[in-house]
Request: fold
Amino acid sequence: MKTEIVVNPDDQALNRAAGIIKNGGLVAFPTETVYGLGASALDERAAAKIYLAKGRPSDNPLIIHLSAPEEAEKYAFVDKTFEKLAEMFLPGALTVVLPKKEIIPASVTGGLDTVAVRVPSNKIAHRLIELSGVPIAAPSANISGRPSCTSASHVIADMDGRIDMIIDGGDCDIGLESTIIMSEGDDRVRILRPGQITAEMLSDGGFEVSFDKAVTEKPEDGEKPLAPGMKYRHYAPRARVILVRASVCDFISFAKENTGGGNAFVCYDEYVCAGIPDMFTIGPEKDRTTQAHKLFSLLRKFDDMSNIKTIYIPLPEKDDIGLAIYNRLIKASGYTVTDII
Ligand code: AMP
Ligand code: MG
Reply:
């Protein structure tokens, strides 16, 4: 299949993209979180094409993207908690799981009786959904298991020749996927996947917040996390990722002692060392928004370096957006954490 690539689309190009969606095709598009791989959420066959293009397991449901929170009641049973969340956080990087209405095919929700609903704030995404006139089912646009795509070049690397169109709208602002929560009624919410809308922000908004175990821990064999996708290995570059629990000082000494031999080290901007050629920075130590923004493109960069066999990364703190970084890295590492003694 020839994939059309459109850079910074005008309305004419977005109308063409909307036409592809309406006719059951696949379009990758930018959002404020990561690039999505979109198809009509009302078209069972189109949704099936997403699973095929990504190599995604069929029990891993898709998030549906809407142009406004008010649209949600067409596809899901909304409650007061959703309405309050929408007022505070939407459009934005928050996905809410709600009981689904019949109009959403079972293939979109992996057979679940719930549907995950999101209203992106990115202007291109918003306009594409509006012009399509249907909700757009869109997982992250990467091949299943790989780091998500935060720029069009990542999407081209994974999806060129597999889908109808790729819209290049530049780098994604946030760079990590949306926070997924389940409404448990009466202003209680459970975080199934952490993201840029943090537990602290939800608490400050007056919500009682709890966490699905899979946010920080490896699901046991046969155990089903509330977000089915959390049980799969994900976000992984080709090289092995090992998280290191150590002070920055100890981490740098460890890097100095182990440089060479296919090892790479991720560190904060302030600590970059001239003597360690395979050291890569992820942003200032205290600026976790920048770290989140750079994470996936850094993990993807390692895939272009065939000499790198093992990537050592400091274990992130688990508060604020650090929890989302922790969650992605712990999965990328296959839950491999080591101490330096
Ligand atoms: P992504 O491919 O990055 O967009 O992943 C979407 C995530 O949303 C996966 O972890 C899915 O398991 C999760 N998800 C989608 N729909 C639902 C749902 N109805 N209930 C719980 N999790 C969901
Ligand atoms: Mg994904």
User: Anything to note?
Assistant: The chain has two domains: 4-215, 240-339. The first strand starts at residue 4 and ends at 7. The chain has a mean pLDDT of 95.
